[in-house]
Amino acid sequence: MGTSLEARFARYGKAIVAALGHADRAAPATWYLQGLMLPGGRKSVEPMAARVRSQEVRSAHQSMHHLVSTSEWSDEAVLATVAKQVLPALTRDGMEPCFWIIDDTGFPKKGTHSVGVARQYCG
């Protein structure tokens, strides 16, 4: 694999999938990661399944939903894998680590009938 964005994302996904600890989780985890990265307003499982597996939405939705709702995997192992991949980018050239602040309020909610939909800060 090269250094293209797609190749880097594929390597990242492969490491995350390995941390999940079971081969049956590979496809739905890969689809889930792709769904999170692709454009689209809703990042819940069903719309993501439709974006990544448009020819087999029902089965992809079921597999992805099972992955995030009932599969047993270690969040500590996944977070450690993410840290292992991200930390070198934050500590290049032997420098002290830098810190990234991620502001999750940057996307306003849409609609008026969902829980929590109200005027809110949108940085």
Structure notes:
- It is a single chain.
- The chain has 123 residues and is mainly alpha-helical.
- The chain has one domain.
- The chain is built from five helices and no strands.
- It has helices at 5-20, 26-37, 45-52, 57-69, 75-90.
- The longest helix is centred in the N-terminal third of the chain and has 16 residues, at 5-20.
- It is globular.
- It starts with a helix and ends in a 33-residue tail after the last helix.
- The model has no long low-confidence stretch (mean pLDDT 83).
Residues in β-strands, percent: under 5%
Low-pLDDT stretches: none
Helix content: 40-55%
- The number of helices is 5
Number of structural units classed as domains? 1
Q: Classify the secondary structure makeup into a structural class.
A: mainly alpha
Average pLDDT reading: 83
Helices and strands, in order, run as HHHHH
Largest sheet descriptor: none
**Large-scale geometry:** globular
Alpha carbon gyration radius: 17 Å
Strand tally: 0
Distance between the termini: 37 Å
Secondary structure topology:
Layout: H1 5-20, H2 26-37, H3 45-52, H4 57-69, H5 75-90
Helix pairs in contact: 1-2, 1-5, 2-3, 2-4, 3-4
